[in-house]
Amino acid sequence: MNDELLLRAKAIRLAIFDVDGVLTDGRLYFLADGSEFKTFNTLDGLGIKMLINSGVRTAIISGRTTPVVERRARNLGIQHLYQGREDKLAVLDELLAELSLDYEQVAYLGDDLPDLPVIRRVGLGMAVASADSFVRCHAHGVTQARGGEGAAREFCELILQAQGNLEAAQAAYL
């Protein structure tokens, strides 16, 4: 693992995730009645839970609004959920003020152009392997996994490893 990424990850106190293309594969599924569903990866979910249990706060910022995301966030224990917010940088600033954190204490995982301002501003801005190429070029790092296929787990484990908490988080399941 890259030493610079580990150094950046060591300071993280808040991890923020985009949804479509990060916690999901990016596809949108609509039923005939207009309702929507998404598929989430259980590996990602456990990674987020391990991160929360280690004391790192978590948030979701999504430009879209759907009850499925609210349910997933609640099930995982994600403390801060912002949906229907396209200006993600404005949300980041609100969160920093509320939590008394600095940009360097925040990690963000995204995949597309609306995520780029936050990726470039935070201490650890990462893109998933399936992210837009321009976004990947401007991120501090890129996961090996694609969005919805374990990328969030990889991101969480990077933070846990940098903070010396990965083995304890894994051992909790032995």
UniProtKB/TrEMBL annotation:
Substrate binds at residue 20. InterPro entries: CMP-NeuNAc_synthase (IPR050793), HAD-like_sf (IPR036412), HAD_sf (IPR023214), KdsC_fam (IPR010023). Its EC number is 3.1.3.45. GO terms for molecular function: 3-deoxy-manno-octulosonate-8-phosphatase activity; metal ion binding; N-acylneuraminate cytidylyltransferase activity. It comes from the Bacteria. It holds the Pfam family Hydrolase_3. Keywords: Hydrolase, Lipopolysaccharide biosynthesis, Magnesium, Metal-binding. GO terms for biological process: lipopolysaccharide biosynthetic process. Mg(2+) binds at residues 18, 111. Its cofactor is Mg(2+). It catalyses: 3-deoxy-alpha-D-manno-2-octulosonate-8-phosphate + H2O = 3-deoxy-alpha-D-manno-oct-2-ulosonate + phosphate. Catalyzes the hydrolysis of 3-deoxy-D-manno-octulosonate 8-phosphate (KDO 8-P) to 3-deoxy-D-manno-octulosonate (KDO) and inorganic phosphate. Homotetramer. Belongs to the KdsC family. PANTHER family: HAD SUPERFAMILY MEMBERS CMAS AND KDSC, N-ACYLNEURAMINATE CYTIDYLYLTRANSFERASE. This is 3-deoxy-D-manno-octulosonate 8-phosphate phosphatase KdsC.
